[in-house]
Write a structure and sequence with these properties.
The structure holds 2 protein chains of 2 kinds. Chain A is mostly beta strands. Helices cover 0% and strands 54% of the residues of chain A. Chain A starts with a strand and ends with a strand. The termini of chain B are far apart. Classes of the chains: A mainly beta, B mainly beta.
Chain lengths: 114, 116
């Protein structure tokens, strides 16, 4: 049973506009969330994370928002650039600390249109 | 830093054959993870090791799958015998696990397995 869900398999956004990728989770015990980015023929790479004690974390063009009451988080990319075209995975540690692996959503394929 | 190294990058085999996937984690990392990516199930954790000891293999789909970590710099994932439904991309990841923090996992490039 998927505890982390990304309901949009793909998203197309024009270059320069904002990309918003969404993620929902069912396990209220999750206290940390991560976003990974994956290009074809490469492994996922860490992008940004957020602790449940925060509701926002920003790193350059990337901002993650967490709404604990709704069990929802989102990744905002502003402005979107062609190099942002990739598959984005939302993930959470299976248990506190993360030492025993991550549970992932199925990913959203972001396509930035020129 | 060379990152996580996986071999082979691609493997095509026939049903019933034994397949061995290899992984070299980042030097100094003490946790190693094997994940599998399929269209149907996305990225799922198969097994993980901490300090070379298997901790949780509940994600291993069947007894046909086995994994070992004989030392801190090498791990294998073996499928014997292989079946067409094992076709997927297999990722190895490593991290430096520590008490009280979530450490980023670093992924290898993956092995794309096709079982005919």
């Amino acid at each position: 049973d998927q505890q982390v869900k990304q309901n949009s398999p793909s998203l197309s956004v024009q270059e320069g506009r904002i990309s918003i990728l969404n993620c929902d989770y069912t396990n209220s015990m999750f206290d940390y969330f991560l976003w990974y980015k994956k290009y074809p023929a490469e492994g996922p790479t860490f992008l940004i994370s957020i602790s449940s004690i925060k509701d926002k974390n920003e790193d350059g063009r990337f901002t993650v928002f967490l709404n604990k009451s709704a069990k929802h988080l989102s990744l905002h990319i502003v402005p979107s650039q062609p190099g942002d075209s990739a598959v984005y995975f939302c993930a959470a540690p299976r248990r506190w600390g993360g030492a025993d692996g991550l549970t992932f959503g199925k990913g959203t394929h972001l396509i930035i249109q020129p | 830093d060379a990152g996580v190294i996986q071999s082979p990058r691609h493997e095509v085999t026939e049903m019933g054959q034994e397949v061995t996937l290899r992984c070299k984690p980042i030097s100094g990392h003490n946790s190693l993870f094997w994940y599998r990516q399929t269209m149907m199930r996305g990225l799922e954790l198969l097994i993980y090791f901490n300090n070379n000891v298997p901790i949780d293999d509940s994600g291993m789909p069947e007894d046909r799958f086995s994994a070992k970590m004989p030392n801190a710099s090498f791990s294998t994932l073996k499928i014997q015998p292989s079946e067409p439904r094992d076709s997927a991309v297999y990722f190895c990841a490593s991290s430096l696990a520590g008490r009280g923090r979530v450490e980023t996992q670093y992924f290898g490039p993956g092995t794309r397995l096709l079982v005919l």
